[in-house]
Fold this protein.
Amino acid sequence: QNVTQTVEEEKPKPPTIQEIKQKIEKYNAKVTNCLLMKLNDDGTYTGFIKVHLKLRRPVTVPAGIRPQSIYDALKEVNLADMTDKRTSFYLPLDAIKQLHISSTTTVSEVIQGLLKKFMVVDNPQKFALFKEMRKDGQVLFQKLPLTEYPLYLRLLAGPDTDVLSFVLKENETGEVEWDAFSIPELQNFLMILDKEEKDKIQQVQRKYEKFKQRLQQTLKEARGKPG
């Protein structure tokens, strides 16, 4: 008789304070800048992570609002609440934001913190944090759970961003949840798609116009040759 036994996988035990201390010392020894990790008395620790923003779609921000100052950040002033007017624009491609976080900071909190720094008022569920890894010449992306701790992943991987880096991207879940977008956002998407369509048409027209000119030139040169 064949008997199938269900074996539950043992969850790894959380590291002790002494193990964390050793890992931080090893990490800091490899740091080539001032971005060190610091261990607290309660066993938590703080450090820095860099997040690459690779967003293909525009984001929604308050219209006519100045960038957040250090004073606003310290006073936790939410500039987005000062106006109901909204506008959409593209964040700089592959912009990098450095964050000082704790070992208790989750992926969800990192996403919310990034959106707040850029004054993005879109629903945080539209975005996801990925870890980018390089292996055998390939670039691999893995979506992180909202409850994951990015600083712990940074500690395990070391300070080398070629080994591990963090990327903020759109939360691709297959089907686009259009209900999550506002009317101005949807209208803006239509304008962008219309512009991209016109640009593509112009590219194709220019390509075949050049091909036509070369073909005509070749025929003209061929007619002028004997035989």
Notes: The chain has two domains: 17-61+85-170, 178-224. The chain has a mean pLDDT of 80.
